[in-house]
Amino acid sequence: MAKTPAWQRKAGKNPAGGLNAKGRASAKAQGMNLKPPVSAKQAKKSPKAAARRKSFCARMGGMPGPLKDSKGRPTRKALALRKWDC
Length: 86
Prior knowledge:
The protein contains 4 helices and no strands.
């Protein structure tokens, strides 16, 4: 049986939210083109990065689902929004 790609496993996920470099590399090997998150500080330096951040926050913020799990821990959705400073 083939091993699942890193971006689907814990090895490719950043504990603070989103994917780490290994996760992005495994996604790229499958034909995806993922870039690292853009923080508010980075967005101030580039209008293109600011537009990416604004677009991500608008899309991801409107996604259904809780921001905390049954034990009160933040979900992957909440972590991603925090990483992007949404």
